[in-house]
Design a protein that fits this description.
By secondary structure, the protein is an all-alpha fold. It has 2 domains: 79 residues, 434 Repressor (Amino-terminal Domain); 91 residues. Helices cover 74% and strands 0% of the residues. It has 8 helices and no strands. It is rod-shaped. The two termini are 35 Å apart.
């Protein structure tokens, strides 16, 4: 007998969720319900409404009959749980999460570098101007606005922040498409 048939709905849901690599929290977020709702479904305390059953069926690639009753059905549209597909989706989600973290770090690092380099540039130019004025004229005069000494490092850090923004925008766009 198929292991999907021998289980209760809650057990089937738990098996499919684990095979897909979703935590209760992630599945709840995907279905727009509370994590406790998923827990109640898995414990058999309550059952999902029809619209949520349809979403679960599509998400896990099983028929409603297989999901709700555990029955094998060989009619049109009959599907078996494709655990390989679920695992691929989970890996894809993990890659997206990693790219999101990398993009966020690039954005943060770029912004911090811009601020630090800008402060250093201003300080360096002021000090340079003060020393020049003291050595040539013999007086201390405040420096005019900072120049272009660190333009390349500033451009690189701004570029890094821009790449981080592009990466995050691309990931958000891909997530909305799915």
């Amino acid at each position: 007998m198929d292991t999907m048939t021998e289980q209760t709905f809650g057990r089937r849901l738990q098996t499919l969720r684990a095979a897909a690599g979703f935590s209760q929290e992630q599945l709840a977020e995907r279905l727009d319900v509370a994590r406790q709702t998923i827990s109640k479904w898995e414990l058999g305390i309550s059952t999902p409404e029809l619209s949520k059953l349809v979403e679960l069926s599509e998400l896990f690639g099983v028929s409603l009959d297989q999901l709700a009753r555990g029955k094998d059905w060989d009619g049109p549209g009959s599907q078996t749980p494709d655990l390989e597909r679920l695992a691929r989706q989970n890996r894809r989600g993990q890659r997206r999460t990693a790219l999101t973290v990398v993009g966020s770090l690039c954005l943060l690092l770029g912004g911090v570098l811009v601020a630090i380099l800008r402060a250093l540039e201003t300080w360096f130019l002021e000090l340079q101007y003060l020393l020049y004025r003291y050595m040539t004229v013999g007086e201390y005069v405040p420096a005019p606005a900072a120049g272009e000494v660190l333009r390349l490092p500033l451009a690189l850090s701004a570029g890094l922040a821009f790449i981080g923004c592009l990466l995050l925008a691309w990931l958000l766009w891909r997530r909305k498409r799915e």
